[in-house]
Amino acid sequence: MNVLLIGSGGREHALAYKIAESHMLGKLFILPGNPGTAQLGSNVSLLLDDYDGIAKFCSNNDITLVVIGPEKPLVDGMSNYLRTNGIKVFGPNAKAANIEGQKSFAKDLMKKYNVPSAAYKIFEMDEYEQAISYLKESEYPLVLKADGLAAGKGVVICQNFFEAQDALTKVFVGKVFGDAGNQVVIEEFMSGEEATVFAITDGENFFCLPPAQDHKRAGDNDTGRNTGGMGAYSPAPVVTQSMMEEIEEKIIKPVLKGLILEDRKFIGCLYCGLMITDSGIKVVEFNCRFGDPETQAVLPVIEGDFLQLLYSAAEGNLDMDAVKYNGGCAVCVVAASKGYPDSYKKGFEISGLDQTDEGILVFHAGTKNISGKIYTDGGRVLGVTSYLPNSDLRTAKLNAYNTLKRINFNGMYYRSDIADKALAKISS
Ligand code: AMP
Ligand code: GLY
To answer: Alpha helix (H) ranges present in 173-291?
Structure first.
């Protein structure tokens, strides 16, 4: 079958790498793709909001399945449009994607269907004074979240009233997130270790991929600004087998059932962002897509036919045996541009990309190919992933960092402690 993959980040390069392994694959197209995906298929230059053009492309190229990577086209309704045109899609329609697109909806859904999460309160833009009174009476730290999509920047952890007042004012008065900040969710702060689980679902049945752990902060030991994610590893030992069962029973099952009951059946990858707290596993957030960089660490540790998994979900008849955990482990370290997640320069040549060993995958995230040379073109530039067929996470980490020593670009920075939380657990 011919497949069209939508997106251009490290996640999409990893998805392309795994889809390209499938015996079922005919041609792979990636829209718009990046220099990494261009090595696995054909990049297509169409605009992401040109739904009509994309549908025509599908019909002209005999596309059997469209896989949508990023949240924005999902929340905007690309799946709806393509499905209406008779095209099979892996990725939820707009109403189901709202589980990520509108945090207040996700919180109310969790409350209604008894999915454990932080206590919360929602305020609308015209309730500024009420929100301030609420913040005055609250305990700290607390978490303030813009309701809509804010490119990973809409969450502020506030240590005291003054920080919260400042954050609220920026959202409601300064409108720093535009319409995404028309409402805010104010949430109880949860402490614990975070983990990510991807549930691949046809809406009713689901299959969980091995758990991963992301590293959201820019600096070592979880310091500095929140980013889209600076590295990940999988499997994450913080999620034990019995916890995985708890996650399936108490979180994934009720939320998928709730989505059906609310007429928002979810077909695609439900990203479960979890906090392992002293009082049980709670949901930090749901996303309507694969996570980035987690996908870059999770896909190398599964075997079988990943395309069959996605296609069977899109068809509404999930193949529970399509893939399984391969017994290995993987560590992905993100190489970012100096300044990220704030402003950064791009256009620097990247060297050392051809000097990688077996067991290393260098996923492109923000890169550009100009006359055969690769240049930086984003905040997160590369995801250097090392994978092993066994569970030797220490060696996997070492291999990833040894590869990074050979790669260089002006302003390159990366965290040096990816996977350390797991290594501390293993050795204790
Ligand atoms: P989100 O975009 O909702 O995933 O939030 C981004 C990050 O903020 C999460 O990965 C957590 O590290 C942190 N965070 C969000 N909500 C909470 C919460 N209620 N308690 C503690 N940390 C949180
Ligand atoms: N790595 C976090 C996310 O994909 O949302």
So the answer is: 241-247, 253-261
What architecture is the 2-92 domain classified under in CATH?
3-Layer(aba) Sandwich (3.40)
User: What global pTM score does this model have?
Assistant: 0.96
What residue segments make up the domains of the chain, in order of their start?
2-92, 119-188, 193-427
CATH topology of domain 193-427: D-amino Acid Aminotransferase; Chain A, domain 1 (3.30.470)
Per-residue pLDDT of 357-391, as tens digits, reads: 899 999 999 999 999 999 999 999 999 999 999 99
pLDDT tens track for 248-266: 999 999 999 999 999 999 9
Q: Indicate if ligand 2 lies below 6 Å from the C-beta of 291.
A: yes
Nearest-5° angle of CA 20, CA 369, CA 406? 85
* Residue 119 structure tokens: 């206590």
Helical H runs in 24-102?
51-60, 71-76, 78-84, 94-101
Which ligand has the shortest distance to the CA of 230? Answer: 2
Residue nearest to atom 1 of ligand 1 (CA): 285
